[in-house]
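REQUEST ID: PR-0412
SUBMITTED BY: lab tech R.K.
PRIORITY: routine
TASK: structure prediction, single protein chain
INPUT:
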Amino acid sequence: MATPTAPPSSRELLDSAKQIQPRLVDLRRRIHAEPELGLDNPATRSKILEELDGLGLEIQLHKNSSGIVATLRGEKPGRRVLLRGDTDALPMPELTDLPFSSKFPDRMHACGHDAHTSMLAGAARILSEHRDKIAGEVVFMFQPGEEAYGGAAAMIEEGLPEVDGAFAIHIAPQIPVGRVGTKPGSFMASYDDFEIQVVGRGGHASMPHDCIDPVPVACEIVLALQSFITREIPATDPGVLTVTQIHAGTTNNVIADSVTITGTMRALSDRTRGVMLEGLPRIAEGIASTHRAKAMIDITSGYPVVVNDAKFEAFARDVIADLLGPDAVLNLPDPIMGAEDFSYVLQQTSGVMVMLGVRPPDSKRPAPCHSSRMMLDEEAMSLGAALHASIATQFLAKSSD
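STATUS: complete
OUTPUT:
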């Protein structure tokens, strides 16, 4: 059995993180001001590489995306742990009026990826300072394309080192600073998007008997899908199906030829996800056929369920309590129905994602992630960087048993 290496103490790591707080804030604000979308984030990658320069890391630049894999090798051999942060923004306007708000129209870091990236870069700096106390390797995964582009899967396909465990932080504006939300098992939902095109036969609005009106057919499909969720999906293994758009017609005296319905499905297990993927086309096609219309279904496969490994989650709880105090651990009663492509990483190895509290001070109803008014308390960023570092050092200090 390998002899564990004594890692730096929680106090040392937290002190180191607080010392670099100005760097964390500066990097986060520079990334926030110049948000980039999808898998190609060249300006963000340049900022990250500039921040990592001189830390003695082995850098691998991915070619199929702006992904960066930076590896820190400790003084002694040992296990390997992965820490991940995402880099892309959302295609939406920013309405925060912050002095460092987005310079680009319809682009905003509304999900905290700017903070995720900065905290991960900060953890790399902290751990580089304590390299002599590390046995093993830390892999820093800077990943673009989390917002519906599957950047994690793209980076895995191009090549990531095999690791013994993985950890990621997501910010949570609803949780107070100093607390970290966690739970074992299903943590975030899967998602799949859908489009249903109901095709009828258009004509004069005064003579629907000469037409096949797709509008009432579409309305019936929408209502039937809601009943499907409540009647065929067990409450103990829930799913969510939301219709977000219905488009039809051009004027008030013409029956349209077709209606387009779009929406999203979320599930907390592979079983429920499978039931929804089978049920949606069955119901839509059946109802359309009853009315002599046609339903053409297009389902865009999304991310799997994020599943926190129970053993790793218990370990993470201990690390959080040791670093920030026992009251810092917030037991989340329910999974989060949002989706995250860190799920692809957790399909490869055991690991966990947690929610870091970043609620702005004096904010009773903070804007959530994906809001054009989302803001966060930057004081929490040093806690996140220290938590990344503590998870890595304590994981590597444990024997392979």
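NOTES: Residues 10-187+305-397 form a domain with the Aminopeptidase fold (CATH 3.40.630.10).
REVIEWED BY: pending
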